[in-house]
Amino acid sequence: MPPPPPPLGHRRRAGRSGQSFDPALDDTELICVRGQLTQGRWSAARSLLSATGDDWDRRGHRLVVLGEPPSSAAWARDWLLAEPESPDAAALLACAAVRAALRGRERPESARAACLVASGRAPDDPTPWLAQLLLARTLGTEGEVVRLFDEVRVRHPEHHHAHHLMAARLAERHARAGHDPLHEVYDFASWASEQAPADSPLAVLPVIAHTERYRVLAAADGRPADPALAGHWTSRRARQVMKAAFDWWLEWEGEDHPRNRLDLNFLAHAKFCEGRSAEAAALFHRIGPHATPAPWSYPDRDPHHAFLAARDAALGSV
After folding, report:
1. Which residue stretches belong to region Disordered (predicted)?
2. Phi, psi at 86, each rounded to 5°
3. Which of 42, 137, 161, 162 is 20 to 30 A removed from 9 (C-alpha atoms)?
Protein backbone atom coordinates (compact mmCIF):
# COMPACT_ATOMS: atom_id res chain seq x y z
CA MET A 1 0.00 0.00 0.00
CA PRO A 2 1.45 3.42 -0.90
CA PRO A 3 1.95 5.92 1.91
CA PRO A 4 -1.14 8.03 2.61
CA PRO A 5 -1.25 11.67 1.61
CA PRO A 6 -1.05 14.33 4.31
CA PRO A 7 -4.26 14.40 6.38
CA LEU A 8 -6.91 16.42 4.60
CA GLY A 9 -6.79 19.99 5.80
CA HIS A 10 -3.04 19.98 6.54
CA ARG A 11 -1.72 23.51 6.18
CA ARG A 12 1.37 24.11 4.05
CA ARG A 13 3.60 27.10 3.81
CA ALA A 14 3.26 29.40 0.87
CA GLY A 15 5.68 28.75 -1.94
CA ARG A 16 7.61 31.30 -3.93
CA SER A 17 4.46 31.91 -5.91
CA GLY A 18 2.84 33.40 -2.81
CA GLN A 19 -0.03 30.90 -3.08
CA SER A 20 -1.06 29.89 0.45
CA PHE A 21 -2.99 26.77 1.38
CA ASP A 22 -5.29 27.60 4.26
CA PRO A 23 -7.56 24.79 5.51
CA ALA A 24 -10.05 27.41 6.71
CA LEU A 25 -10.80 28.05 3.02
CA ASP A 26 -13.21 30.98 2.66
CA ASP A 27 -14.55 30.98 6.23
CA THR A 28 -13.51 34.47 7.32
CA GLU A 29 -15.10 34.11 10.77
CA LEU A 30 -13.10 30.96 11.34
CA ILE A 31 -9.86 32.63 10.26
CA CYS A 32 -10.43 35.45 12.73
CA VAL A 33 -11.30 33.13 15.62
CA ARG A 34 -8.34 30.85 14.91
CA GLY A 35 -6.05 33.85 15.25
CA GLN A 36 -7.60 34.75 18.59
CA LEU A 37 -7.39 31.17 19.83
CA THR A 38 -3.65 31.01 19.16
CA GLN A 39 -3.37 33.99 21.52
CA GLY A 40 -5.32 32.18 24.22
CA ARG A 41 -8.65 33.91 23.71
CA TRP A 42 -10.85 30.83 23.65
CA SER A 43 -14.03 32.83 24.29
CA ALA A 44 -14.12 33.69 20.58
CA ALA A 45 -14.12 29.98 19.73
CA ARG A 46 -16.93 29.43 22.23
CA SER A 47 -19.05 32.09 20.52
CA LEU A 48 -18.29 30.79 17.04
CA LEU A 49 -19.15 27.18 17.88
CA SER A 50 -22.30 28.24 19.70
CA ALA A 51 -23.42 30.14 16.60
CA THR A 52 -22.57 27.14 14.38
CA GLY A 53 -25.07 24.97 16.23
CA ASP A 54 -25.89 21.62 14.63
CA ASP A 55 -24.70 22.50 11.14
CA TRP A 56 -22.58 19.38 11.37
CA ASP A 57 -20.47 19.87 8.25
CA ARG A 58 -19.60 23.43 9.30
CA ARG A 59 -19.02 22.43 12.91
CA GLY A 60 -16.67 19.64 11.85
CA HIS A 61 -14.81 21.91 9.46
CA ARG A 62 -14.37 24.62 12.08
CA LEU A 63 -13.28 22.31 14.88
CA VAL A 64 -10.76 20.46 12.72
CA VAL A 65 -9.22 23.76 11.63
CA LEU A 66 -9.26 25.22 15.15
CA GLY A 67 -7.60 22.06 16.44
CA GLU A 68 -4.67 22.30 14.06
CA PRO A 69 -2.38 24.92 15.72
CA PRO A 70 -0.02 23.26 18.23
CA SER A 71 -1.22 25.59 20.99
CA SER A 72 -4.89 24.63 20.62
CA ALA A 73 -4.77 21.67 23.03
CA ALA A 74 -3.45 23.84 25.85
CA TRP A 75 -6.12 26.51 25.30
CA ALA A 76 -8.83 23.86 25.08
CA ARG A 77 -7.70 22.51 28.46
CA ASP A 78 -7.86 26.05 29.89
CA TRP A 79 -11.39 26.34 28.55
CA LEU A 80 -12.33 23.03 30.16
CA LEU A 81 -10.97 24.22 33.50
CA ALA A 82 -13.30 27.19 33.29
CA GLU A 83 -16.26 25.23 31.88
CA PRO A 84 -15.76 21.54 32.73
CA GLU A 85 -19.02 20.39 31.15
CA SER A 86 -18.63 22.25 27.85
CA PRO A 87 -19.15 19.92 24.86
CA ASP A 88 -17.51 22.49 22.59
CA ALA A 89 -14.34 22.64 24.69
CA ALA A 90 -14.21 18.83 24.83
CA ALA A 91 -14.65 18.59 21.06
CA LEU A 92 -11.90 21.16 20.48
CA LEU A 93 -9.55 19.23 22.75
CA ALA A 94 -10.40 16.02 20.87
CA CYS A 95 -9.57 17.58 17.49
CA ALA A 96 -6.40 19.18 18.85
CA ALA A 97 -5.27 15.88 20.39
CA VAL A 98 -5.83 14.06 17.10
CA ARG A 99 -3.82 16.69 15.24
CA ALA A 100 -1.02 16.34 17.78
CA ALA A 101 -1.09 12.55 17.46
CA LEU A 102 -0.83 12.78 13.68
CA ARG A 103 2.25 14.99 14.14
CA GLY A 104 3.73 12.46 16.55
CA ARG A 105 3.36 14.85 19.49
CA GLU A 106 0.65 12.92 21.34
CA ARG A 107 -0.03 9.26 21.98
CA PRO A 108 -2.85 7.98 19.75
CA GLU A 109 -4.43 6.36 22.81
CA SER A 110 -4.67 9.74 24.53
CA ALA A 111 -6.25 11.29 21.44
CA ARG A 112 -8.82 8.50 21.24
CA ALA A 113 -9.63 8.95 24.92
CA ALA A 114 -10.22 12.69 24.38
CA CYS A 115 -12.56 11.84 21.50
CA LEU A 116 -14.55 9.43 23.63
CA VAL A 117 -14.95 12.06 26.35
CA ALA A 118 -16.18 14.55 23.74
CA SER A 119 -18.64 12.06 22.25
CA GLY A 120 -20.03 11.40 25.73
CA ARG A 121 -20.66 15.12 26.24
CA ALA A 122 -22.63 15.44 22.98
CA PRO A 123 -23.93 12.04 21.80
CA ASP A 124 -25.59 13.48 18.67
CA ASP A 125 -22.49 15.33 17.47
CA PRO A 126 -20.58 13.47 14.72
CA THR A 127 -17.46 15.63 15.20
CA PRO A 128 -15.71 13.56 17.90
CA TRP A 129 -16.19 10.52 15.68
CA LEU A 130 -14.86 12.49 12.71
CA ALA A 131 -11.76 13.28 14.78
CA GLN A 132 -11.27 9.57 15.47
CA LEU A 133 -11.78 8.84 11.78
CA LEU A 134 -9.06 11.37 10.91
CA LEU A 135 -6.72 9.48 13.22
CA ALA A 136 -7.71 6.06 11.90
CA ARG A 137 -7.37 7.24 8.30
CA THR A 138 -3.61 7.24 8.86
CA LEU A 139 -2.99 5.05 11.90
CA GLY A 140 -5.95 2.67 12.14
CA THR A 141 -7.01 -0.63 10.63
CA GLU A 142 -9.56 -0.96 7.86
CA GLY A 143 -12.05 -2.28 10.38
CA GLU A 144 -11.60 0.81 12.56
CA VAL A 145 -12.06 3.13 9.60
CA VAL A 146 -15.32 1.44 8.59
CA ARG A 147 -16.66 1.41 12.17
CA LEU A 148 -15.86 5.09 12.74
CA PHE A 149 -17.30 6.10 9.39
CA ASP A 150 -20.52 4.35 10.37
CA GLU A 151 -20.55 6.24 13.68
CA VAL A 152 -20.29 9.55 11.83
CA ARG A 153 -22.85 8.59 9.23
CA VAL A 154 -25.49 7.45 11.72
CA ARG A 155 -25.37 10.99 13.14
CA HIS A 156 -25.11 12.85 9.83
CA PRO A 157 -25.64 10.64 6.74
CA GLU A 158 -24.23 13.24 4.33
CA HIS A 159 -21.10 14.14 6.30
CA HIS A 160 -18.80 15.66 3.69
CA HIS A 161 -15.41 15.28 5.35
CA ALA A 162 -16.10 11.71 6.48
CA HIS A 163 -17.01 10.62 2.95
CA HIS A 164 -13.82 12.16 1.58
CA LEU A 165 -11.74 10.31 4.17
CA MET A 166 -13.49 7.04 3.42
CA ALA A 167 -12.98 7.43 -0.32
CA ALA A 168 -9.28 8.14 0.17
CA ARG A 169 -8.82 5.06 2.34
CA LEU A 170 -10.85 2.74 0.11
CA ALA A 171 -8.92 3.88 -2.96
CA GLU A 172 -5.77 2.39 -1.42
CA ARG A 173 -7.08 -1.15 -1.47
CA HIS A 174 -5.51 -3.42 -4.12
CA ALA A 175 -2.97 -0.80 -5.14
CA ARG A 176 -1.18 -3.18 -7.53
CA ALA A 177 -4.34 -4.37 -9.27
CA GLY A 178 -4.12 -1.64 -11.91
CA HIS A 179 -7.04 0.08 -13.55
CA ASP A 180 -10.30 -1.56 -12.51
CA PRO A 181 -13.59 0.19 -13.34
CA LEU A 182 -15.28 -2.08 -10.78
CA HIS A 183 -13.01 -1.15 -7.88
CA GLU A 184 -14.89 -0.81 -4.59
CA VAL A 185 -14.10 2.90 -4.19
CA TYR A 186 -16.21 3.59 -7.27
CA ASP A 187 -19.08 1.53 -5.88
CA PHE A 188 -18.85 3.39 -2.59
CA ALA A 189 -18.89 6.80 -4.25
CA SER A 190 -21.81 5.90 -6.51
CA TRP A 191 -23.78 4.49 -3.58
CA ALA A 192 -23.13 7.54 -1.39
CA SER A 193 -24.02 10.04 -4.09
CA GLU A 194 -27.22 8.16 -4.94
CA GLN A 195 -28.26 7.97 -1.28
CA ALA A 196 -27.76 11.71 -0.73
CA PRO A 197 -30.39 14.36 -1.53
CA ALA A 198 -30.24 15.99 -4.95
CA ASP A 199 -28.68 19.18 -3.58
CA SER A 200 -25.92 17.40 -1.62
CA PRO A 201 -22.28 18.07 -2.55
CA LEU A 202 -21.76 14.31 -2.33
CA ALA A 203 -22.79 14.40 -5.99
CA VAL A 204 -19.11 15.18 -6.64
CA LEU A 205 -17.90 12.13 -4.67
CA PRO A 206 -17.45 9.93 -7.79
CA VAL A 207 -14.89 12.49 -9.03
CA ILE A 208 -13.16 12.37 -5.63
CA ALA A 209 -13.00 8.59 -5.84
CA HIS A 210 -11.61 8.68 -9.37
CA THR A 211 -8.92 11.15 -8.32
CA GLU A 212 -7.94 9.26 -5.17
CA ARG A 213 -7.64 6.06 -7.16
CA TYR A 214 -5.35 7.88 -9.59
CA ARG A 215 -3.13 8.91 -6.65
CA VAL A 216 -2.78 5.27 -5.62
CA LEU A 217 -2.22 3.86 -9.11
CA ALA A 218 0.32 6.54 -9.99
CA ALA A 219 2.34 5.77 -6.86
CA ALA A 220 2.11 2.02 -7.44
CA ASP A 221 3.07 1.75 -11.11
CA GLY A 222 4.94 4.96 -11.91
CA ARG A 223 2.37 6.67 -14.10
CA PRO A 224 3.32 10.03 -15.63
CA ALA A 225 4.00 12.78 -13.09
CA ASP A 226 1.74 15.03 -15.15
CA PRO A 227 -1.79 13.66 -14.57
CA ALA A 228 -2.98 15.20 -17.83
CA LEU A 229 -0.81 12.67 -19.67
CA ALA A 230 -2.41 9.69 -17.95
CA GLY A 231 -5.20 7.75 -19.67
CA HIS A 232 -6.96 7.53 -16.32
CA TRP A 233 -8.85 10.70 -17.18
CA THR A 234 -10.02 9.90 -20.70
CA SER A 235 -11.91 6.64 -20.29
CA ARG A 236 -15.62 6.57 -21.09
CA ARG A 237 -16.50 6.08 -17.44
CA ALA A 238 -14.29 8.98 -16.35
CA ARG A 239 -15.89 11.32 -18.88
CA GLN A 240 -19.39 10.33 -17.73
CA VAL A 241 -18.53 10.89 -14.06
CA MET A 242 -16.94 14.27 -14.66
CA LYS A 243 -19.71 15.50 -16.95
CA ALA A 244 -22.37 14.54 -14.41
CA ALA A 245 -20.49 16.31 -11.60
CA PHE A 246 -19.89 19.45 -13.66
CA ASP A 247 -23.51 19.61 -14.81
CA TRP A 248 -24.61 19.24 -11.20
CA TRP A 249 -22.30 22.07 -10.13
CA LEU A 250 -23.78 24.40 -12.77
CA GLU A 251 -27.20 23.96 -11.16
CA TRP A 252 -26.05 23.90 -7.53
CA GLU A 253 -27.13 26.72 -5.24
CA GLY A 254 -25.18 25.65 -2.15
CA GLU A 255 -22.17 27.91 -2.50
CA ASP A 256 -22.17 28.47 1.26
CA HIS A 257 -21.14 24.89 2.05
CA PRO A 258 -18.02 25.16 4.25
CA ARG A 259 -15.93 22.77 2.13
CA ASN A 260 -17.20 23.62 -1.34
CA ARG A 261 -13.81 25.01 -2.41
CA LEU A 262 -12.29 21.58 -1.85
CA ASP A 263 -14.84 20.01 -4.20
CA LEU A 264 -14.19 22.73 -6.76
CA ASN A 265 -10.44 22.04 -6.65
CA PHE A 266 -11.03 18.34 -7.30
CA LEU A 267 -13.45 19.12 -10.12
CA ALA A 268 -11.14 21.72 -11.71
CA HIS A 269 -8.24 19.26 -11.52
CA ALA A 270 -10.32 16.54 -13.17
CA LYS A 271 -11.58 18.82 -15.92
CA PHE A 272 -8.09 20.09 -16.65
CA CYS A 273 -6.71 16.54 -16.80
CA GLU A 274 -9.58 15.60 -19.12
CA GLY A 275 -8.55 18.42 -21.46
CA ARG A 276 -11.72 20.49 -20.92
CA SER A 277 -9.97 23.81 -20.44
CA ALA A 278 -13.04 26.06 -20.73
CA GLU A 279 -14.89 24.14 -18.05
CA ALA A 280 -11.78 24.11 -15.86
CA ALA A 281 -11.45 27.88 -16.31
CA ALA A 282 -14.98 28.43 -14.99
CA LEU A 283 -14.08 26.42 -11.91
CA PHE A 284 -10.81 28.29 -11.38
CA HIS A 285 -12.75 31.56 -11.41
CA ARG A 286 -14.99 30.21 -8.66
CA ILE A 287 -12.06 28.82 -6.64
CA GLY A 288 -10.36 32.21 -6.54
CA PRO A 289 -7.48 32.18 -4.04
CA HIS A 290 -8.78 29.11 -2.19
CA ALA A 291 -6.57 26.39 -3.62
CA THR A 292 -6.16 23.12 -1.69
CA PRO A 293 -3.10 20.81 -1.55
CA ALA A 294 -5.19 17.82 -2.66
CA PRO A 295 -5.50 16.95 -5.48
CA TRP A 296 -2.82 19.22 -6.97
CA SER A 297 -0.12 17.28 -5.11
CA TYR A 298 -1.10 14.01 -6.84
CA PRO A 299 1.12 12.17 -7.54
CA ASP A 300 3.97 13.58 -5.45
CA ARG A 301 3.94 17.01 -7.14
CA ASP A 302 4.49 20.49 -5.80
CA PRO A 303 0.86 21.55 -5.36
CA HIS A 304 1.60 25.27 -5.63
CA HIS A 305 3.25 24.93 -9.01
CA ALA A 306 0.75 22.35 -10.26
CA PHE A 307 -2.23 24.53 -9.34
CA LEU A 308 -0.77 27.70 -10.85
CA ALA A 309 0.32 25.95 -14.05
CA ALA A 310 -3.12 24.39 -14.56
CA ARG A 311 -4.94 27.63 -13.72
CA ASP A 312 -2.79 29.71 -16.05
CA ALA A 313 -3.17 27.21 -18.89
CA ALA A 314 -6.93 26.98 -18.45
CA LEU A 315 -7.51 30.71 -18.15
CA GLY A 316 -5.16 31.39 -21.06
CA SER A 317 -7.19 29.11 -23.31
CA VAL A 318 -10.44 31.05 -23.06
Report:
1. 1-23
2. -70, 120
3. 42
Assessment of whether the complete model's pTM goes beyond 0.85: yes
Residues 130 and 204 in one domain: no
- Report if residue 49 sits inside a domain: yes
How many angstroms separate the CA atoms of 280 and 134, rounded?
30
DSSP H helices in the chain: 28-38, 42-52, 56-66, 72-82, 87-102, 108-121, 127-139, 142-155, 160-170, 184-195, 205-221, 236-251, 260-274, 277-287, 293-296, 303-316
Number of domains within the chain: 2
Q: What is the pLDDT of residues 256-311, one digit of tens each?
A: 899 999 999 999 999 999 999 999 999 999 999 999 999 999 988 999 999 999 99
Predicted local distance difference test score (pLDDT) of residue 7:
39
Give the integer Cα–Cα distance in Å for 315 and 109. 48
